[in-house]
Amino acid sequence: MKKMKLKCSVIVFITLLLLTPIHIAYATPFEISANSAIVMDATTGRILYEKNIHARKPMASTTKIMTALVALEKTNLEDVVKVSRNAVGVEGSSIYLTYDERITMKDLLYGLMLRSGNDSAAAIAIEIGGSIDGFSKLMNKKAREIGAINTNFTNPHGLHNENHYTTAYDLALITREALKKDAFKEIVRTKLWVAERENFKYFYNKNKTLVELHGGDGVKIGFTTSAGRCLVTSATRDGMQLISVVLNAPNWFQDSYLLLNNIFEEYKPYNVFQKDQVLKNVSVVNGQKTETGIISYENATIPVKAEELDKIITVLEVKEKYTAPLKRGDKLGRAKIFVDNQLIYSLYLYCREDIYQKTVKDKVINFFKNRK
Q: Which residues are catalytic?
């Protein structure tokens, strides 16, 4: 009887256990609040995490990444801008520009990216594009050039407009392009900038990632009621720079830190070949040298998981013969790096040296050498 009671008790206990919900004490690594999110390697563009990356979303002040990119391509940092009346009193974040104030493009860009000045964005746009609409066309042109085809800009600051949108993927592409510029990298990682003006000249960076995230080095925060909280974050560890984008993310900073910390743990930088390393020797026809080496001007470093190391393949798309004259820096082909049969990175290859054509004297000498 006691055994029967014990058996019944065990059955009841197991039944209750199966019917009772079990609450796991930890969340999955990528359980985030963002509606759309991506983590991209800044060097190769490899996507390391994605969530709704092609969904069109408003992006608030992260718009200013493109504003800064276009400005850096179209002007010099030391250019002096005369502030237009239409750039004064723009709603939202401000660096309090005044009509006819003269300010350098450098100070405007720091005000744009650190203080998120909407008036700064307007001043830059009017100076370069002649108007907000004119500058927006330049922004859209640049977006198409870099493959951000699901993006449309109607202004340089990100204030709400139904036709102003991007995607997590496109915004990562735009950020990756901007980070290729040393001036942009320097601006977005600056914690404090002192502008050359009388009033409101101390620009403190609103981006907490610079102090809260290991390796954090930018990029831009943004918020409007329509867009929600948006954050583009960059961080560099062990020579590998990652870009995180979260759109409409109630826990914007927590989401970004969670994504980046986990991706840095999962992926490590792997150097496939070094800058200036001779990757292949090719024949040279009619040259004073009969062969030369083909090199890259950059390190080929890719992010990989440990289990992917034996799945890396490099394909060199070069000819076996080239005709002199050749100059150092002549583009001779491409290197394509695949991981598990997927193209991860493609980069140009160049001639490593100058090789001149054979002279008449060279040909005569070679003729008699060959007769011996």
A: 61, 64, 116
Residue 8 clears pLDDT 90, i.e. is over it? no
- Lookup result for tokens 């307007």: 122
Q: Give the β-pairing of 312-318 and 280-285.
A: unpaired
| pTM for this prediction | 0.87
The token pair at 179 is 């980070």
* Pick from 184, 327, 175: nearest CA to 256: 175
Strands 280-285 and 321-323: parallel
State the amino acid at position 230 in one-letter form: C
**Residue 69 exposed, middle or buried by CB count within 10 Å (0-12, 13-18, 19+):** buried
Dump pLDDT digits (tens) for 117-137.
Answer: 999 999 999 999 999 999 999
CATH number at residue 122: 3.40.710.10
Rounded to 5 degrees, φ, ψ at 117 are -70, 115
Residue 96 lies in a domain: yes
Let me know: does 93 contact 200? Beta carbons within 8 Å.
Answer: no
Q: What is the mean pLDDT of residues 358-365?
A: 64
